[in-house]
Amino acid sequence: MRSRRSDPQSSIAPSSRPSGEQAAKRTTGNDQPELPLAAPKQRLRVLEPEVAARVAISRRGKPSGIPGYVKLLFTLELRRELAEKLSLKAIRSERNIEAIIIARIETAARQWR
């Protein structure tokens, strides 16, 4: 004897909550639609570049063991030739590649002033 299988969709009871469209049409006693529970986030006003830079570093930078310094961690994708030149310069000057890159950034920053 075969047992009858019912359609899985027919066994699910209809939801007691109205669908999104029905919820949007639902009104209060004075025929005004319901307001959303949370106000949408508003974008912050545009900050001056100097202020925006301080905010960005305060969020992204980590405290350093050296007073007045912050740690910024990021990944550089360099051409292999450039990476090898930086590595060669670091080896010849008996420093690490990070020190070479920091020195280059500081030199460029002095030129911006």
Q: How would you explain this protein's 3D organization?
A:
With 113 residues, the chain is mainly alpha-helical. Among the domains are: 29 residues, no CATH class; 39 residues. The protein contains four helices and two strands; from the N terminus they run H-H-E-E-H-H. It has a two-stranded antiparallel sheet with strand order 1-2. Strand 1 and strand 2 form a beta hairpin. Helix 3 crosses helix 4. The longest helix is centred in the C-terminal third of the chain and has 16 residues. The protein is elongated, with a radius of gyration of 31 Å. 0% of the residues are buried. The mean pLDDT is 81.
Sum up the structure in keywords.
4 helices, 113 residues, elongated, two-stranded antiparallel ribbon, mainly alpha
Fraction in beta strands: under 5%
Radius of gyration computed on alpha carbons = 31 Å
Mean pLDDT reading: 81
The secondary structure category is: mainly alpha
- Give the low-confidence spans: none
* Count of β-strands: 2
What distance separates the N and C termini? 90 Å
Largest sheet: 2 strands, antiparallel
Briefly summarize what is shown:
By secondary structure, the protein is mainly alpha-helical.
